[in-house]
Amino acid sequence: MPRIVVDVMPKPEILDPQGKAIVGALPRLGFTAFSGVRQGKRFELTVEGPITEEILEQARNAASTMLSNPVIEDVVNVEVLDEASTQDAEAN
């Protein structure tokens, strides 16, 4: 079934304690190339039938009004998930 992906991230000026904890732990695990981490949220909205422009617009509206908190978060991506890449990922 087709899916729409919505990615939400904290606004740049908002403190991200989870990101800070992750960036602090990475060097202890041997990952030394990273100087910063911001943690966000990903939503996958499953659609019955084809994804039309109207359905995509509904996803954008849901992202900005319900899936994110516009005071502290930005919706950074709303896109149709490619079925072929989904099947490849599930096979691995």
Automatic annotation (TrEMBL):
It catalyses: N(2)-formyl-N(1)-(5-phospho-beta-D-ribosyl)glycinamide + L-glutamine + ATP + H2O = 2-formamido-N(1)-(5-O-phospho-beta-D-ribosyl)acetamidine + L-glutamate + ADP + phosphate + H(+). Its EC number is 6.3.5.3. It comes from the Bacteria. Pathway: Purine metabolism; IMP biosynthesis via de novo pathway; 5-amino-1-(5-phospho-D-ribosyl)imidazole from N(2)-formyl-N(1)-(5-phospho-D-ribosyl)glycinamide: step 1/2. Its main location: cytoplasm. It is found in: Cytoplasm. One of its GO terms (molecular function) is phosphoribosylformylglycinamidine synthase activity. Keywords: ATP-binding, Cytoplasm, Ligase, Nucleotide-binding, Purine biosynthesis. SUPFAM superfamilies: PurS-like (SSF82697). InterPro entries: PurS, PurS-like_sf. Belongs to the PurS family. Part of the FGAM synthase complex composed of 1 PurL, 1 PurQ and 2 PurS subunits. Part of the phosphoribosylformylglycinamidine synthase complex involved in the purines biosynthetic pathway. Catalyzes the ATP-dependent conversion of formylglycinamide ribonucleotide (FGAR) and glutamine to yield formylglycinamidine ribonucleotide (FGAM) and glutamate. The FGAM synthase complex is composed of three subunits. PurQ produces an ammonia molecule by converting glutamine to glutamate. PurL transfers the ammonia molecule to FGAR to form FGAM in an ATP-dependent manner. This is Phosphoribosylformylglycinamidine synthase subunit PurS. It comes from Sinomonas cellulolyticus. The gene is purS.
